[in-house]
Design brief:
alpha+beta; five-stranded antiparallel beta sheet; four-stranded antiparallel beta sheet; 8 helices; 13 strands; 33% helix; 14% strand
């Protein structure tokens, strides 16, 4: 059916011209404006506002208690304790308690802040025009004025209970992260400052597992030794040998340049730590003619004829020397422990 066959009263008409309407009325893009502000009960009833204040403070207080619970759980529960918790099954008591308490601490801070904003802070909607990215002095002044007005409307100065409990909750939550730093590893304490070497400990050849005698060490040879009494099947063998392993070499006394090295040696037999002072690799490459030893990891080179000082590479200090002598049985023995920690430097060495 063509438009010519449609009755005239059924044809569409232009908006603004039908039925005598004014042209241009009913603009669909007109600014509808902001809805009328409806006050909350807290705005008109101070008792309701006080109840909201106590509720917010209560949630901030719960956050503080949860943070304290986090620290307490970290101290109380051992790492290997497993418990059954429905519906999770068998879980680590430490992990579950830490996750639960930290989650509650963060949740109550968020819930308190949301309840504070919805019930006590100003909810009047304000429209503002966009401005250039670079603020003018007038805009900066307006921002500061708006900030001051917002602070005043939040009642943070007047609602001291909320302010103080919020500061307490925010101050305690970071303690959770500080406590977790303890899991970076056990504190070294004094364990890195001493080894198994002591006065009277015999030097044992790590290949033959027999005590070393002076005649077993010839000029130009390199021998590895460990303290007597240390067994390879001991549970702490690797920990102890990583500090106590020795390099034994024999140098003609006239070729030893360092006075203390000559005094701590026995007939030219010197004992130095085998542990590199860079990152703790075991040293094993020896040059007979130069008396240099080379660390295979990063090529730090030490001169064993001159106090094992560093002559090349990233190592920070010389290899510690062990003072040795001969006991009544004719075996080489230590005359004490190293006078300085072996291996690389560590944070509490000083």
């Amino acid at each position: 059916m063509s438009s010519q066959q449609i009755p005239e009263e059924n044809l569409p008409v232009e908006q603004g011209t039908a039925h005598g309407a004014v042209e241009g009325a009913g603009d669909p893009f007109a600014d509808p404006g902001l809805p009328a502000h409806r006050p909350r009960i807290q705005d008109i009833d101070e008792r309701a506002a006080n109840r909201s204040e106590r509720a917010v403070a209560f949630m901030f207080t719960l956050s503080m208690l949860a943070t304290i619970g986090f620290i307490a759980c970290y101290v109380i529960f051992p790492v290997d304790k497993i418990v059954y918790i429905w519906p999770f099954g068998h879980v680590s008591a430490l992990n579950f308690s830490l996750g639960l308490t930290l989650g509650l601490a963060l949740f109550f801070i968020g819930a308190g802040a949301v309840h504070w904003a919805r019930t006590l802070m100003s909810d009047v909607e304000v429209a503002d025009d966009r401005h250039a990215i670079e603020a003018t002095p007038e805009v900066k002044a307006k921002v500061m004025a708006d900030f001051a007005a917002g602070a005043a409307e939040s009642a943070i100065g007047r609602r001291k209970l909320i302010r103080n409990t919020m500061f307490g909750a925010l101050a305690l939550v970071p303690l959770s992260g500080v406590v977790l730093l303890r899991d970076l590893g056990p504190l070294p304490e004094k364990k890195l400052r001493s080894t198994l070497w002591a006065k009277g400990k015999q030097l044992v050849n790590m290949n033959t597992m027999e005590p070393l005698r002076p005649e077993d060490v010839v000029v130009g040879s390199l021998t590895f030794a460990m303290p007597e009494g240390l067994e390879e099947d001991a549970h702490d063998f690797q920990t102890q040998i990583a500090k106590a392993a020795l390099m034994i070499i024999r140098i003609e006394p006239d070729n030893i340049k360092d006075k203390r090295e000559r005094e701590w040696a026995h007939e030219g037999i010197v004992a130095f730590s085998k542990i590199c002072t860079h990152v703790g690799c075991p040293i094993s490459l020896y040059e007979q003619q130069t008396h240099h030893v080379l660390c295979p990891c990063h090529q730090s080179t030490f001169d064993l004829s001159d106090g094992a000082r560093v002559i090349f590479g990233p190592a920070g200090h010389a290899l510690p020397q062990l003072r040795i002598g001969v006991n009544s049985e004719g075996n080489l023995e230590a005359l004490g422990d190293f006078e300085e920690p072996v291996g690389p430097a560590f944070w509490e060495r000083g």
